[in-house]
């Protein structure tokens, strides 16, 4: 009788997990349409960035414009400042991601160890910033007055390198994916904490680390607010802040040309520059994302279901 119940339960679970052929076709078409609707706007943005500004004024946005132009990109890359900003942003993103992953992974590993004496204190200490923030003034005082990092590239790196949310993800990842017996056997073989961390924990934690690295990469690449607060020098301006300033300045000139006594401002490719800014700021992330994707889903879903 019990065997029949188990067989019936197994069949019902298998039937629940299967998708009929008609449903599979419907879901495939539906998800394909959703994916297409998500990609089409960005394709249109790319096309507009290569469209002549006068053509946009006459005919509006088109997938196949009457005239192509590189004026928007020529104006953006004209003085070479964009290349310097690219270098600054790449340096900040790479160095900040490495530092952030190292600090948060070591801290999360400490919180995952049940035998660590200060585990409870550090857990509460890390949760406090999620509930209470020091605010912009407090951050500014610490970065500028206490640490003295104004006009320093480290003012773009240090404020974003730690996140309680990411620490909690990694702590759960360690608890669910790293067997306790594996760590105990390493202790018995005489391995130190650093040996266990570098030779056992890190190789087993690639999905979780890749997830945190992706969060950090997106945060550093899209950050412009830190530069607004802490950077006055044009030598270390990040890409996002520079593009925002260029777009604002060009739009201001286009809107106030008459008051300033300027002429021929209809030739300014304001609309195409906006689209070119979007392309330059998002294209590198779109290129890098597929390399993280296979780890990203596994890193987020680990520990979501506990047997």
TrEMBL record:
PROSITE patterns: ABC_TM1. The keyword Membrane applies. Belongs to the binding-protein-dependent transport system permease family. The lineage of its organism: Bacteria, Bacillati, Bacillota, Bacilli, Lactobacillales. The chain crosses the membrane at residues 25-50, 90-112, 124-147, 153-174, 195-221, 272-292. GO terms for cellular component: plasma membrane. This is ABC transmembrane type-1 domain-containing protein. One of its GO terms (biological process) is transmembrane transport. Keywords: Cell membrane, Membrane, Transmembrane, Transmembrane helix, Transport. It is a multi-pass membrane protein. InterPro entries: MetI-like (IPR000515), MetI-like_sf (IPR035906).
């Amino acid at each position: 009788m019990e065997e029949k119940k188990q067989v019936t339960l197994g069949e019902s679970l298998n039937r629940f997990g299967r998708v009929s052929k008609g449903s599979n076709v419907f879901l495939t078409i539906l998800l394909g349409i959703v994916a297409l609707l998500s990609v089409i706007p960005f394709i249109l943005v790319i096309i507009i960035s290569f469209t002549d500004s006068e053509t946009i004024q006459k005919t509006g946005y088109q997938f196949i414009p009457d005239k192509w132009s590189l004026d928007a990109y020529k104006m953006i890359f004209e003085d070479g400042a964009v290349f310097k900003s690219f270098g600054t942003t790449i340096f900040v993103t790479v160095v900040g991601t490495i530092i952030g992953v190292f600090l948060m992974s070591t801290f999360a590993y400490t919180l995952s160890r049940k035998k660590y004496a200060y585990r409870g204190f550090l857990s509460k200490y890390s949760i406090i910033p999620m509930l209470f923030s020091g605010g912009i003034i407090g951050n500014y005082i610490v970065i500028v007055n206490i640490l003295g990092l104004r006009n320093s590239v480290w003012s773009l790196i240090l404020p974003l390198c730690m996140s309680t949310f990411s620490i909690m993800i990694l702590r759960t990842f360690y608890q669910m994916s790293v067997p306790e017996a594996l760590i105990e056997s390493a202790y018995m073989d005489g391995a130190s904490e650093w040996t266990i961390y570098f030779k056992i924990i890190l190789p087993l934690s690639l999905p979780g680390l890749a997830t945190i690295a992706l969060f950090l990469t997106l945060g550093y690449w899209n950050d412009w607010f830190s530069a607004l607060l802490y950077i006055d020098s044009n030598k270390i301006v990040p890409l996002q802040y520079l593009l925002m300033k260029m777009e604002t300045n060009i739009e201001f000139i286009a809107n106030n040309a008459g008051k300033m006594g300027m002429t021929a401002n209809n030739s300014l490719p304001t609309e195409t520059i906006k689209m070119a800014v979007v392309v330059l700021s998002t294209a590198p992330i779109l290129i890098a994302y597929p390399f993280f994707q296979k780890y990203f889903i596994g890193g987020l879903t680990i520990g979501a279901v506990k047997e």
